[in-house]
Amino acid sequence: MKPRIQRHEKIIALVRENHYMSIEALAKILDVTPQTIRRDINILSEEDVLRRYHGGATMGDILESELHSGKRSSLQDEKNAIAQMIVEHIPDNASLFLSIGTTMEAVAAALVKQRKNLRIITNNIYVASAASARSDYTVIITSGVVRPLDGGVTGVATVDFINQFKVDYAVMSTHGVEQDGSLLDYDYKEVSVMQAMMSNARVRFLGVDHSKFQSNALVRLGSIKDFDKVFTDRPLEEHMQKILDGAGIECRIPQPVEC
Question: Which parts of the sequence belong to the HTH cro/C1-type domain (predicted)?
């Protein structure tokens, strides 16, 4: 195998594992010049494998598609458990935002089975499809550009659309939670939409499975302390629990099943 091809495979593996890698870090790990890494990233970007950022690269459409395909079957029981807890805190006749992500799709499926007369505003076409099965629901999908990858709708038009509403609940997830409680995601356009949802909701719920506390990303959404309740599938590490306790935020995890 040619050295360049081997290097490309290593770059792809590193970005897949870490989601973002700087040019300097890649050059050091692979023992080549930054100029060589820039050329490699340009080639891989043209192939949609990577996406260039100033000073580094993150996953392109091909890698993200592979990742998302895996996510649809990954930790589904945990996501369903989180969804069930969230639904228990949403009454009939409520209005809510539901954001992008497979956990939010699980929330929509649980709502359809258990709640009546909801008004749902979403930028997730899969959520809209599931919720529209109920004739007593009003389902509004935002304007904007649809991402083929995950059915998410994002962009400036999406933010403007969200800002027209004031709802009871914003229910959302995120890609990663940093040690200091910062919430991170990849797409700044998606982050802008979620920030608008947070600003226009009376109550904010965050649903994240345990893997999100081991993930990072490039764009800061906000803080875990910006939410009224956090729903996850495992007890939090001590430092994270202290952050929530200090802010007076309740964290809910599934109750053990009695044998």
Answer: 12-39
Task: Give the integer Cα–Cα distance in Å for 112 and 130.
Answer: 8
Q: Are residues 189 and 167 in the same domain?
A: yes
The whole model's pTM is what? Answer: 0.75
Q: How far is CA 28 from the centre of its chain?
A: 30
Alpha carbon distance 88, 83 (integer Å): 9
User: Can you tell me the distance from the alpha carbon of 139 to that of 127, in angstroms, rounded to the nearest whole number?
Assistant: 9
- CA–CA distance, 6 with 14 (Å, rounded to integer): 12
Q: How confident is the model at residue 140 (pLDDT cuts 50, 70, 90)?
A: very high
For residue 122, the cross-strand partners are 98, 141
What average pLDDT does this structure show over 195-211? 96
Query: How far apart (Å, rounded) are the C-alpha atoms in residues 89 and 205?
Result: 9
Higher local confidence (pLDDT), 98 or 2: 98
Same domain membership, residue 64 and residue 90:
no
Q: How far apart are CA 106 and CA 73, in angstroms?
A: 12
User: Which of 128, 106, 104 lies closest to 118, judged by CA?
Assistant: 128
CB 104 within 8 A of CB 124: yes
**∠ CA(239), CA(242), CA(244), 5° rounding?**
115
Tell me if residue 239 falls in helix, strand or coil. helix
Q: Is residue 79 part of a domain?
A: yes
The pLDDT, as a whole number, for residue 154 is 87
pLDDT in tens, 86-122: 999 999 999 999 999 889 999 999 999 999 999 999 9
> At residue 21, what are phi and psi to the nearest 5 degrees?
-135, 135
* 122 domain residue, yes or no: yes
Q: Is residue 64 part of a domain?
A: yes
